[in-house]
Design a protein that fits this description.
Layout: E1 7-13, E2 18-21, E3 27-40, E4 47-57, H1 58-67, E5 73-86, E6 92-105, H2 109-112
Parallel strand pairs: 4-6
Antiparallel strand pairs: 1-3, 1-5, 2-3, 3-4, 5-6
Length: about 150
């Protein structure tokens, strides 16, 4: 029987990510994100939030620890993993987490900082501004009879 394990989430970081090294020197980063559910509790009008634990490894771990902090939105793609162990008191413990294959920004750097880092407004090239119109006839040739046009 075939199986499929893929998780795609967009949420906000609940705390600054923790970057650690394994004994062999491999980078691992753990963090959690808050993801809003699509529905609200009808009696209170509040949205329900799930807190999802995420683990990234190697370059992804270093990327997350360098460029994300508490409150930043983040996109995570990965797979769901459940693990269990016995703690020091002999209790059986379980953890469910997403092992991230991909992480990405959701907003641009300027949007995540609220504005330009220098405090001014963001730069918009002139090419993205409103089009400039010229007066009629200045750059166009008048066609006296448009009966010969193919359209």
């Amino acid at each position: 029987m075939a199986s499929f394990n893929k998780v795609i989430l967009i949420g906000n970081m609940t705390a600054d990510p923790e970057l650690k090294q394994t004994a062999s020197g491999t980078s691992v980063c753990s963090f959690s994100i808050a993801v809003n559910r699509r529905f609200t509790k009808s009696e209170q009008g509040q949205q329900t939030v799930d807190f999802i634990n995420i683990v990234t490894w190697r370059q992804q771990a270093e990327f997350v620890s360098r460029y994300f902090k508490k409150g930043n939105p983040i996109l995570v793609c990965g797979q769901l993993q459940t693990r269990n162990w016995t703690d020091n008191q002999g209790q059986k413990r379980y953890a469910t987490e997403v092992i991230a294959d991909e992480v990405s920004f959701v907003t641009s750097a300027a949007q995540s900082q609220g504005n330009n880092p220098q405090g001014g407004s963001t730069y918009t090239p002139e090419a993205y501004g409103a089009p400039a119109y010229t007066t009629p006839g200045s750059n166009f040739e008048e066609i006296p009879n448009d009966g010969d046009l193919p359209f």
